[in-house]
């Protein structure tokens, strides 16, 4: 097969592993910086140009689009979809997952467990927001934040009110969520491919940090998940329309709750923690499922 890998940095662990896995299975894979692509929007001969040449028609494309360039990256991916190239994750699904509010609304509509969450813009009534959520402590998130950036813990009522009002002062949208104390600063990252959880790890934040992101100094270990956690992760991936993703869960007293669905999960932490060949399973999924024009939206969304 001929595969395109859309990414900014070919030297990242995840991207090198995907290239290695594809080549080990006898496939040809090209690494393409999507920000350096031009797209020719023509009804009869749509094409993508890269480094002065028109790209060939690939059998499949693996999008690894950074959050900061979602708009342009998904536009390029959508062009591949219009050309009939099979995407591991479709542009519409990636856009859904990157919008924290939209993704939570979609998860809620499917009855998937979530922390109690309030969306707000006008935050002069911080006390009312906290009353709706059941009081402090609460997690306050910027809609645009990634990798734990723009996520703050309001430990007391007064501290939470001050943080909410401060965010209101910079004219931004925020999410305020209940703090799942029983999770103990740990979450579970489930890697979903197709309709299966193929790997899972427990992530714990560094001492004194409630955020468990590995980028922020957290640690990861292999974990055995429950059937309910497995079902929740798969349902969350399906709600987003993602074939390959990381679903982050917290273990709450009333069952697993989803805090994020990541359309470009890193592979280093989970492969090191579990010893599994996640990259190889992504390539195997492509081989099994890739067909020309096989997208739900055909670039329409």
Describe this structure in words.
This protein has 301 residues and is α+β, with helices and mostly antiparallel strands. The chain has three domains: 2-89, 3-Layer(aba) Sandwich (Rossmann fold); 96-113 and 182-285, ATP-grasp fold, B domain (D-amino Acid Aminotransferase, Chain A, domain 1); 117-179, ATP-grasp fold, A domain (Dna Ligase, domain 1). The protein has helices at residues 13-24, 70-82, 91-98, 100-109, 126-133, 157-169, 227-240, 268-274, 278-289, and strands at residues 2-6, 28-32, 37-40, 47-50, 53-54, 60-63, 86-87, 117-120, 138-142, 151-154, 174-178, 186-193, 196-204, 219-222, 244-252, 255-262. The strands form four sheets. It has a five-stranded antiparallel beta sheet, with helices on both faces. The protein has a four-stranded parallel beta sheet with strand order 2-1-6-7, with helices on both faces. Strands 8-11-9-10 form a four-stranded antiparallel beta sheet, with helices on one face. A hairpin with an 8-residue loop joins strand 9 and strand 10 (151-154). Helix 1 crosses helix 9 and helix 2 runs antiparallel to helix 3. The longest helix is centred in the C-terminal third of the chain and has 14 residues, at 227-240. The protein starts with a strand and ends in a 12-residue tail after the last helix.
List the helices and strands and how they pair.
Layout: E1 2-6, H1 13-24, E2 28-32, E3 37-40, E4 47-50, E5 53-54, E6 60-63, H2 70-82, E7 86-87, H3 91-98, H4 100-109, E8 117-120, H5 126-133, E9 138-142, E10 151-154, H6 157-169, E11 174-178, E12 186-193, E13 196-204, E14 219-222, H7 227-240, E15 244-252, E16 255-262, H8 268-274, H9 278-289
Parallel strand pairs: 1-2, 1-6, 6-7
Antiparallel strand pairs: 3-4, 4-5, 8-11, 9-10, 9-11, 12-13, 12-15, 13-14, 15-16
Helix pairs in contact: 1-9, 2-3
